[in-house]
Amino acid sequence: MSPGDSPDPGPAGEARVRRGRRTLHKLLLSVAVALGTLILAGVALEVGLRLSGDRDAALEAGLNRTHRRWAELLQSDFYEEVDDPVRRYAMRPGAVTQVDGWTFRANSHRSRGEEFPTEKPAGERRLLALGDSFCFGMWCDEDETVVARLAAKATAAERAAGSDVTWRGVNMGVPGYHTGQQLRALEQDGLAIDPDVVLLYFNTNDILADGFFYDEDLRILYGDAMPLPAGLRRLMFSSHLYDWIERRYEARLTRGPSPHLSDRSPWSHNRPENREATRAAIARIAQICRERHIPLFVIHQPLMSWMGDARDPNWQILPLVEFADGIFEEEGLPTFNMLGWMRGNLDGIDRGPEGEGPAREFQLEQYFADEAVQAYLAKLAEGNAPANVELPRDPDFHLNGDGYGALAELVYPRMRAAGILP
Hints:
By secondary structure, the protein is of the alpha/beta class. It has two domains: 15-52; 66-417, SGNH hydrolase (Rossmann fold), CATH 3.40.50.1110. 43% of the residues lie in helices and 12% in strands. The chain has 14 helices and eleven strands. The chain has helices spanning 10-52, 54-61, 68-75, 133-136, 146-160, 179-190, 230-236, 240-253, 272-291, 307-310, 318-330, 339-342, 371-381, 401-417; strands at residues 79-81, 89-91, 96-99, 102-105, 124-131, 166-171, 197-203, 213-215, 220-222, 296-301, 335-337. The strands form four sheets. It has a five-stranded parallel β-sheet, sandwiched between helices. A two-stranded antiparallel ribbon has the order 1-2. Strands 3-4 form a two-stranded antiparallel sheet. The longest helix has 43 residues, at 10-52. Keywords: Membrane, Transmembrane, Transmembrane helix. GO terms for molecular function: hydrolase activity, acting on ester bonds. Residues 129-303 form the SGNH hydrolase-type esterase domain. This is SGNH hydrolase-type esterase domain-containing protein.
């Protein structure tokens, strides 16, 4: 036998080799059977869930009185998916729809309103607004939104000063957007229209790092709490089984009375990652505006709720208000905090939760777009005992046109004092 030759294993060695091969074959067969069983079980569950209508039932269960209009707007094909893992969806250029008498139009710049050229005509100034559904103006006409009213006031001031300058309000607020998505809207669409002023309409519930997905087939917005990359989660939503698992996973994480404040929930505004993502997005928006010498103004809206909540010294939202104000102060941004107005002060000045100084001057609820709330207030105004009229448990806290008008009356002089609008 030469040095490179292997020794003869003999009969015993060959037997061990055969036993090893048989063991390996059995193991591979067992793994294949297990995988096959798992795949068949998954397919069976997928088919069963599709036949049972489980997803349709879940969607129907979420369609309460408050969400009806919002669902109609989504179903109208007003939005579309965009190829960005953060932004995810936007207004569909050219879309036009009506919901309960309000007309919603999306132009080629992915903003709400009439079409306009990318290049500014001579004598035109542009006020670009970024935000969520409150900036968008869910239940009011185009000319009743905050940005439209501010642009109109600026134009009137130009005329009063003998100027021919016209201000155009460009509304890039999108329902459901958090601050990171608003940053993407600015970068991808907003800068292209060459804004002269940027208005950030910040809502406390924008303190998030992960937002909604939009499904163009079902025309719905949905959240996904699974700890997976955004692209994979979007792909997996086509599976009813994955959706079934995710809903139960999310329900476990968001169990409790205030999931938006619970550290268990991935969408809690108190989670460090959500706060840091918000801080970074606001800082980046401010940096972009500074680099381009574009004035930036912030409307800071605490989570819209009953006026009694805003006047409660122990309101759970107050620490979030302080957190956001801290960011705006760090960035040196002129800001109007709506808290004083939400507490019933017509001048918008915050006199504390107990309303020291002038007594409550108006009822915040009069500006809610919720018909059930308005019906309740009408009964009170008539002097009728409202015992047979209950306030809704899930009110729509979006403002009506009058509410945005009152807000613009407070914001405009502050923007003017900051030298941002004429």
